[in-house]
Specification:
two-stranded parallel sheet, about 180 residues
Length: about 180
């Protein structure tokens, strides 16, 4: 649980949430400085506690999302995305060239709006700035998604900058919260 990890660590690391489309949850959380109440119900009764691990939430703002991903202090980027949201061809493992966000991001890689485009552009900027790549952690429930996301990111990078793709392959970690 992020709250327990935050309490156990030294420093002020917290979560910046991102929604590429929906603004409602972001507006609600930002209005209360990221705090929310977690209510747990079980055989032992009901308990409530305030959660404060969320710093802020960015919604429907590709520029702010890219800036957050490029911040040198960002070490881990977790993803919970629908299968279609990634823009990855599950058969080939590469970018789905028929996906609208993939096509738009390949046409304008400097101003991405989709998942693959944002990740690749952020990694490119981190590389140019001399910063290490972040680790991508897939937290959704798609089978073997860590490997698939890595393949999609590297494939997208290869289409825009083969040297960047090699750098990502050599240095960037992509994992999954479940065993691949």
């Amino acid at each position: 649980m992020p709250e327990a990890a935050l309490a156990a660590s030294v420093g002020d690391w917290r979560i910046t949430g991102v929604s590429l489309r929906s603004v409602e949850v972001a507006e609600a959380l930002n209005a209360q400085h990221g705090f929310y109440t977690l209510i747990e119900r079980g055989s032992q009764g009901t308990s409530a506690r305030v959660i404060g691990s969320i710093r802020d939430v960015i919604a429907a703002d590709s520029t702010a999302t890219l800036a957050a991903l490029c911040a040198p202090e960002v070490r881990i980027v977790t993803l919970t995305v629908t299968e279609k949201g990634y823009g990855i061809d599950r058969l080939s493992g590469g970018p789905d060239l028929t996906h609208p966000a993939v096509g738009a991001d390949l046409a304008s890689p400097d101003t991405p709006a989709g998942v693959l485009g944002l990740l690749v552009r952020a990694l490119a900027q981190r590389r140019l700035s001399g910063h290490k790549p972040f680790t991508v952690l897939s937290c959704d429930n798609l089978p073997e998604n860590g490997r698939l996301v890595r393949s999609g990111v590297v494939g997208f990078a290869r289409m825009t900058d083969p040297g960047l793709a090699d750098w990502i392959e050599a240095l960037a970690a992509v994992a999954t919260a479940k065993n691949d």
